[in-house]
Design a protein that fits this description.
The complex is a heterodimer of chains A (588) and B (485). With 588 residues, chain A is mainly alpha-helical. Chain A has helices at 2-21, 27-51, 77-100, 107-126, 130-148, 155-186, 191-199, 207-220, 229-232, 238-247, 249-259, 261-264, 269-289, 294-314, 318-345, 358-361, 363-377, 383-398, 400-425, 432-435, 442-457, 468-489, 497-501, 503-509, 514-563, 568-587, and strands spanning 58-64, 67-72. Chain A is 76% helix and 2% strand. Chain A has a two-stranded antiparallel ribbon with strand order 1-2. In chain A, helix 2 (27-51) packs parallel to helix 4, helix 3 runs antiparallel to helix 21 (442-457) and helix 5 (130-148) packs antiparallel against helix 6 (155-186). With 485 residues, chain B is mainly α. Chain B has a domain at 270-485. Helix content of chain B is 77%, strand content 1%. Chain B contains 23 helices and two strands. In chain B, helix 6 packs across helix 23 and helix 17 (319-346) runs antiparallel to helix 19 (366-379). The chains are: A mainly alpha (588), B mainly alpha (485). At the A-B interface, strand 1, helix 25 and helix 26 of A face helix 9, helix 11, helix 15 and helix 19 of B.
Chain lengths: 588, 485
């Protein structure tokens, strides 16, 4: 069983290395290796879930004197669930990519990066200590950078990749500080050791440490104010959006919070986490209402749902958060892949106002997308219904204000998803591409169909007694949201909202000017700091220190070279002189 | 006598193999001779495996020929090290055969004879065997260096090595004579007992210093390093590899045995001198490498610098220091073999080994580009590769002894400075591979499969030694427990 656990982690790494080193030239081999690795990990995960109990294999990486660094895998209920999500959804998305990336020039590079990403993500899931988790945390950042910027010749993609990486680094800086504070306070970074010392009741960490750790999650799970990278990250290939920016990487933050929940529980950080989650979810849902790009709508919806999960953790229920994470992973991956299928069919058209009438032209995509939408809106009996219920329940019990926020977000969610669905799939085609759209090949539709299954059923695995008030509220908002959106958008040629809402619609469309504000801040603060740093670098460091040292070293090198004349007599002379010098040095 | 021969069975096999290669040359056709090198390498592989046989390892900690020849953990470690080196060099020599023009079989046989000299050196427990082993190595190398008789450079390198080698042999034999005069014996065991009372005896010290000079020549330590760049550059590349790895390691096994276990008190007395030699060697090698454009010459200077790092292990005067030397040498073996093989594959006969020939290597052969990059990074001492860990152990061994001796701290500072300087020229190699615009030649590089195997093995070893250093450290530690009677 321990071998299986190691293999789960190492198979994708093996695939990334092999593709990177050798098979880069063969498209087929790369795809086969990469898909084989991730499905292999998936099967092994199932094996672990079925037969393995709680495992904790660990090896000492190196031990020199007093310093010992371990690499260990923690396999328990939590990581098993996450393993299923990552490898399961990951496998389907790998297969879907076969169709989506079919015509891409750098097919092999794509699969190498994808494998690298899966490896890094699994590392976060399996890590048994903060240091290891942080290493893989950064690796995920790198591989997501590579994948977002996959089409690096497009300036917008390259910019988006940079933005994602830098924004994440801001969060990671806090995370690292948090880890150091935990280490300083409790003297350990292993989760098992930490749990032991915390459960003893004697040791705790400060709220600040908890909040700093949350900063890491803020970056990866795109919580306000570090949310700005996620919508731009949609510049990457759509399967990547589905894998990284819907199901796995962005869930890493939530997963991490659940993993170390025992640490932050009871500190003031919890309050902050709950509010940041709630506000992110509200803000993102508002912004989603006025987006026209199909992937961006889904991106904002992801932000909003992540806000839900973070809020659930902050309110003290990691169970509800993980439950929603799991259902969300399947239906949001489904929605993204559905969007991918539409985008391919429409020759990379992403504006929903240029779609329409896809219902008859792409029936499989239509039906699966409908299932995904229903699940996301929380229509009863679909998976999203149950997990959203769980979160609303927690909110009602703990914080009534946040409960109202959450219900309002649910309303908005139903509204914008219905808008998206009605505009893109119903009515008449509004462009030539939409008119000529054809259903995608089986390699793309089969993953859609497979993902539709958990999108419906995943909710039934969580025993939960519904609160009648919550039930009523969520039913009302679903029906109300759908009705309003349907009335507004059915048969509409353009969005009627801007005319009605005026400035508010503009604010939503411009995403509350977050990017502009950041830009201004960066211009004012960072530019000036950079100028100062540049001056120091140019004159003091490069001028005095580097050039000074370099010049002296170079000069010494040239002088020494003079000794190397190539003349044998000179050499023999140096020999004798050296001997004489040694004699004088030692014997005098 | 029969059980005496048992001790030198590996050496006998190697010499016999050399003779067989010479004989086979008479009977084989031109085409069959090509694979003779592979055959010899395979046979050496067999000898290598035989060194693990229980019948042989049970002899460890025994002596033969009246205590002249000693087989202990250290000797065994180095015998295996030399065998491995020679296997790689033989495979390399087959690649190189077309450039030798004539006498390929003789070339192979001389490699084997030099190998037997190195293996004897590993077991030398007496000045007479030490001298004979060293001369066996040096004399065969005179020939190996000048083997490309049609190239002026090769001949010139041969003559330089011959004359400077002769000077150093003169130092060595003169030193041995003086030591014999004062200690009254050539046996290491006798000198070990006698040397405590000779510490103030100027003649004895004189003699030991000359012996040190003779060995310092082998490892190309300052101030006896001056031959290395010219000879490394002019010699056929497999010879250079063998010289840089095998011959240097032979010098080190003798230094370890002599200065580590035979005359430890003298070594302590000479700590200051050793520190100065090590520091100057590091500085000289790294500084001279900076403006270098010729790859073989660059590696020669880098080899000098590495000799300096290795001397730190002697300076430390502890088991940890010795173990660090062994660890570092093993990493150095794999790195240099890979680096020289790649340089040889990339350059062509007649062209210089200018650094610019690496331009565009990442397009010509991604595998070679990655492998050479790993070598450069490892030599620069950047984690997580073999070179980093070796340097780490060496520095650690010196740092562990550093309290109470400011000279040690100075040496550490010099070592760190050297590493920083070296990053500049090693990364120059990487920059040329990946970012140089002026690509002269875009043809893919053809690699024979045994060469590919050796390269793959080297890359794997460089990674293994860097990432999972636990086991190799244990082997090195086990080998350093030198029994002193």
């Amino acid at each position: 069983m321990n071998t299986a656990a190691w293999l789960i982690l190492l198979l994708p790494l093996f695939s990334a290395v092999v593709i990177g080193l050798g098979a880069f030239r063969s498209r087929k081999a790369s795809a086969v290796i990469s898909i084989g690795a991730v499905t292999g990990s998936f099967l092994l995960t199932l094996l672990l879930v079925a037969f393995g109990g709680e495992l904790h294999p660990s090896v000492t990486w190196l031990a020199i004197g007093g310093l010992q660094i371990d690499i260990g895998l923690q396999i328990d209920q939590l990581s098993k669930l996450m393993l299923c999500v990552v490898t399961g959804v990951g496998s389907l998305i790998h297969i879907f990519s076969l169709g989506y990336m079919k015509e891409d020039r750098d097919f092999s590079r794509y699969f190498a990066f994808l494998s690298l990403f899966i490896f890094s993500m699994l590392g976060i899931v399996l890590a048994d200590n903060f240091v290891m988790m942080f290493i893989f945390w950064e690796l995920v950042g790198v591989s997501s950078y590579l994948l977002i910027g996959f089409w690096f010749e497009k300036p917008s993609a390259a910019d988006a990749a940079k933005k994602a990486f830098l924004t994440n680094r801001v969060g990671d800086f806090g995370f690292l500080l948090g880890i150091l504070m935990v280490w300083a306070a409790l003297g350990s970074v292993g989760f098992a050791d930490l749990a032991k010392s915390v459960s003893g009741g004697t040791a705790t960490i400060t709220g600040l440490a908890g909040f700093l750790i949350f900063c890491g999650a803020m970056g990866k799970s795109a919580q306000a104010p570090l949310h700005v990278w996620l919508p731009d990250a949609m510049e990457g290939p759509t399967p990547v959006s589905a894998l990284i920016h819907a199901a796995t990487m962005v869930a890493a933050g939530v997963y991490m919070l659940c993993r170390v929940f025992f640490l932050i529980d009871g500190t003031w950080a919890m309050e902050a986490i709950a509010w940041i989650g709630g506000l992110t979810s509200l803000m993102a849902a508002l912004m989603a209402v006025q987006q026209d790009d199909i992937k961006r709508i889904l991106a904002y919806s992801t932000l909003s749902q992540l806000g839900y999960m973070v809020m659930a953790v902050g309110l003290g229920s990691p169970d509800a958060a993980m439950f929603h994470l799991t259902t969300h992973a399947s239906f949001k991956a489904l929605l993204f892949l559905g969007a991918g299928s539409v985008i391919v069919a429409l020759h990379h058209e992403q504006d929903i106002w240029k779609m329409g009438g896809l219902r008859d032209r792409m029936p499989k995509t239509y039906w699966t997308f409908l299932i995904g939408t229903m699940a996301l809106c929380g229509v009863p009996l679909f998976s999203g219904f149950f997990s959203k219920e769980a979160i609303l329940d927690v909110a009602l019990e703990n914080n009534i204000l946040l409960f109202f926020v959450a219900v309002f977000v649910a309303l908005l969610t139903t509204f914008y998803m219905t808008r998206l669905f009605v505009v893109a799939f119903m009515g008449e085609p509004r462009s030539v591409h939409a008119e000529q759209a054809k259903e995608s090949p089986a390699v793309m539709t089969v993953p859609l169909l497979v993902l539709a299954v958990p999108s419906v059923l995943a909710g039934y695995f969580y025993a939960h007694a519904p609160n009648p008030l919550v039930l009523a509220a969520s039913l009302v908002v679903v029906v109300f949201g759908m009705l309003v959106a349907n009335t507004l958008y059915s048969g509409a040629k353009a969005d009627p909202l801007p005319a009605k809402l005026g400035l508010l619609a503009k604010a939503l469309r411009q995403r509350f000017w977050f990017d502009e504000i950041y830009q201004w801040l960066i211009d004012q603060v960072q530019e000036n700091l950079a100028k100062l740093a540049d001056a120091i670098d140019r004159w003091v460091i490069a001028g005095l220190l580097v050039r000074g040292t370099h010049g002296t070293t170079e000069l010494a090198a040239r002088v020494l070279r003079l000794a190397q004349t190539g003349n044998l007599q000179t050499y023999a002379f140096w020999f004798a002189a050296g001997m004489a010098a040694l004699l004088v040095f030692t014997l005098s | 006598m029969g059980d005496q021969l048992e001790f030198i069975q590996l050496e006998v096999m190697v010499v016999a193999l050399g003779l067989l290669v010479l004989l086979a040359d008479l009977f084989l056709s031109e085409s069959a001779r090509r694979s003779l090198g592979y055959l010899a390498a395979g046979s050496l592989g067999l000898v290598f495996l035989l060194s693990f046989r229980g019948g042989y390892t049970s002899l460890v900690d025994g002596e033969a020929f009246g205590g002249i020849y000693r087989l202990d953990g250290l000797a065994l470690f180095f015998k295996r090290f030399f065998l491995l080196t020679a296997i790689f060099v033989l495979v390399f020599a087959v690649d190189f055969a077309s450039r030798l023009r004539s006498g390929v079989s003789e070339y192979l046989a001389f490699i084997l004879f030099a190998l037997s000299g190195m293996m004897f050196a590993g077991s030398a427990n007496d000045f007479s065997l030490l001298f004979v082993a060293i001369e066996l190595i040096t004399v065969t190398f005179y020939i190996l260096v000048s083997f490309q008789r049609h190239r002026m450079q090769s001949l010139e390198a041969g003559v330089k090595y011959l004359i400077l080698g002769a000077v150093s042999s003169a130092f060595l034999v003169y030193g041995i004579a003086l030591v014999f005069g004062e200690a009254g014996s050539l046996k290491f065991d006798a000198i070990r007992d006698a040397h405590a009372r000779l510490l103030q005896n100027k003649v004895f010290l004189f003699g030991m210093l000359f012996v040190f000079a003779g060995l310092a020549f082998k490892i190309s330590a300052f101030p006896f390093q001056i031959w290395a760049p010219d000879v490394y550059q002019g010699a056929p590349t497999p010879t250079t590899t063998f010289l840089a790895v095998g011959s240097k390691a032979a010098g080190f096994v003798l230094l370890i045995r002599l200065f580590g276990s035979v005359v430890p008190e003298l070594t302590e007395q000479w700590t200051g001198m050793l520190i100065v030699v090590a520091a100057l060697t590091i500085l000289y090698g790294n500084l001279c490498a900076l403006p270098q454009r010729n790859l073989k010459r660059l590696l020669a200077y880098s080899g000098i610098a590495n000799a300096g790092y290795l001397l730190m292990g002697i300076v430390a005067q502890s088991d940890n220091g010795t173990a660090a030397i062994l660890y570092y040498l093993v990493g150095y073996l794999f790195t240099l073999v890979a680096a020289f093989m790649i340089i040889n594959l990339v350059t062509r006969e007649g062209e210089g080994e200018d650094i610019s020939c690496l331009a565009g290597l990442n397009k010509r052969s991604p595998f070679l580009a990655v492998a050479l990059t790993l070598c450069a990074v490892s030599l620069a001492g950047i984690p997580p590769l073999a070179g980093f860990f070796g340097k780490f152990l060496l520095v650690k061994s010196v740092a562990a002894e550093a309290f109470g001796n400011t000279g040690y701290f100075a040496l550490l500072a010099v070592a760190v400075f050297g590493v920083v300087v070296s990053i500049y020229y090693y990364f120059g190699i990487i920059r040329t591979i990946y970012w140089s615009k002026d690509t002269l030649d875009n043809s893919p590089v053809a690699i024979a499969w045994p060469t590919r195997m050796v390269l793959g093995l080297c890359v794997a070893a460089i990674l293994y030694l860097g990432i999972l250093p636990d086991k190799p450290i244990n082997w090195a530690n086990a080998a350093t427990k030198i029994e002193t009677k």
